[in-house]
Amino acid sequence: MGAFILRRLALALPSLLGISVVLFAVLALAPGDPFAELATNSNVPPEVRVHLRASLGLDDPVALRYLHWLVAMLRGDWGFSFISRVDVTTLIWQRVPVTLGLIGASQLLALAIAIPVGTLSAVRPYSWFDRIASTLALAGFSLPTFFTGILLILVFSIKLDWLPFVYRSDVEATGWAAVVEHVREAIMPVAVLGLFQGAGWTRYVRSAVLDVVRLDHVTTARSKGLSERVVITRHVLRNALIPVVTLVALQMPTVFGGAIVTEQIFRIPGIGSLLIDAILRNDTPVIMGVTFVFSMLVILFNLVADLLYGLLDPRIAYR
Amino acid sequence: MASSIPASRTDRPVSPWGEAWRRFRRHRMAVSSLGVLAALVAAVVLGPLAWHMPIDALDFSATMQGPSAAHPFGTDDLGQDLLARMLYGGRISLAVGIAAMGMAVLVGVTVGALAGISRGPLDAALMWLTDLFLSLPQLPLLLLLIYLFREPLKAVFGPEGGVFVMIVLVIGCFGWMQVARLVRAQFFSLREKEFVEAARALGATTTRVVWRHILPNALGPVIVAGTINVAAAIIAESTLSFLGLGFPPDIPTWGRLLFDSKDHLDIAAHWALFPGGAIFLTVMAINFVGDGLRDALDPRRVL
């Protein structure tokens, strides 16, 4: 098992390097340079600027600059935010837990919807339940997160006044009241992201279960006299979930996109809203840092999916 | 089986496309969605000819009004007519969707065909590239690219053209992977088929085999993926505009209208509902058509 994890990690390295090359290439190809701020500032004398450029290695060949940049990124030396003059790493680490919480909760909601609904649809294909569920799933998957967010705010905050529409980390209450308040704040963002993902996955689960239900081992299980519930949960679902895990991991970039939008709508202080703020204020180091974190998270989730894959499918040996 | 087919039909050959159309018509939601889509396209293309209200006429005596005879979709905070703005914005949203799809399909088919016809290192390298692109965090990178390249493209193509070209390029760059994988998979199975072998035996060059024999047969899944791509591109463009990083403020794409409306939800709900509803309706219609096409073009399925 340990060796398997190490091997998967070794396989993830080239992707991480590939992503870092893409990121660096984008940055290097971009017109203007990150020191434009200093270049246009008349308070900085030209000889100081030349000296700065040389000391920062900006005139070195591209390959050397890439190496320097990569080493700095790996050592956690991500620079200072232009705007708040704080370490980029500090800024990001403050906000990562919020984003991960939002994504985690919404993924759980999505799975809680997708697995039962998708399975029931596939067990009785083309029944009324299946037709309604499939149509709703397609509709839900066509509703962009930013519009669902606005709709929920319209209905639950403005018309009904049940839920707050701005996420505030500084709740005035203490103890249980604060917990309740945080949960109330989190309901809509989690629902927005969870429903969107749930709708998409319902379709995957349905088609995966449909593929498995026809297989011979399922017929065997039925003919042994096992109850339908056992057949579905033990013999069908476990096999059907294997391809679904892969698809869930492949969807991770989309999930992060949804999280950025959701954080922006509900003003949640996660790394997504940090990214948008940084872009609107031309804060290059923060933009690069957040993009890098998102890339690493994608790779991390792919790794987790690989491990889960091994757990779900004993035919894949941990060699 | 043969006895169930009416005699008049047996001697009339059905073309593959006719057969696909017959299967497509069975998907009722897909057919009605095709109607909705045609109506939407007709509205944004022909609408401005019938609805003459300018998109930027300010009217401070009628700000944030709900739907009325003078303004069927109401007005925004500057009293601009929302119907006119939506018709204009719809053209851009649809154009971005179609252009980005075209680019994604072009890149995807090229990469997939190259990988599928050449075994060995080139195939491995191209698939590694595809996997790499699949694991890139798309929205953050889209935002990064737009942040870095907005100004120079604006200088080359003008404010509207620059942003249009960039958004299409960037969205297209992140949409080709699925197509590439599908095309490669099709190539892998088709290149071993007897008719390809026959063409080879007749002395056809690889180029001719690819163009005349393999590509036309690999087209079905590409059409389906392309359709879904249009929807994805429209959502991507609206997302960028919704985050305030898409088209400039004076170009009212649907996402931009939503972005502008989101601080006035309590007084002017219609301002958000019309453009949001338009995006939803378009994307859903495209997805249903894609579903219908999948049923129609999947040769394994017999209906």
Summarize the structure.
The complex is a heterodimer of chains A (319) and B (303). Chain A is 77% helix and 0% strand.
Q: Count of helical segments of chain B?
A: 11
Strand content of chain B: under 5%
Q: Which structural category fits the helices and strands of chain A?
A: mainly alpha
Uncertain regions spanning at least 5 consecutive residues of chain B: none
Number of strands of chain B: 0
Work out the largest interface and the residue count of each chain. A-B, 50 and 45 residues
**Largest beta sheet of chain B, briefly?**
none
Distance between the termini of chain B: 13 Å
Shape of chain B: globular
End-to-end Cα distance of chain A: 8 Å
Low-confidence stretches of chain A: none
DSSP, total strands of chain A: 0
Describe this structure in words.
The complex is a heterodimer of chains A (319) and B (303). Chain A has helices at residues 2-29, 36-40, 46-55, 62-74, 88-123, 128-142, 145-159, 176-213, 216-223, 228-250, 252-266, 271-280, 284-312. Chain A has 319 residues and is mainly α. The model of chain A has no long low-confidence stretch (mean pLDDT 80). Chain B is mainly α and 303 residues long. Chain B starts with 6 loop residues before the first helix and ends in a 6-residue tail after the last helix. At the A-B interface, helix 1, helix 6, helix 7, helix 11 and helix 12 of A face helix 5, helix 6, helix 9, helix 10 and helix 11 of B.
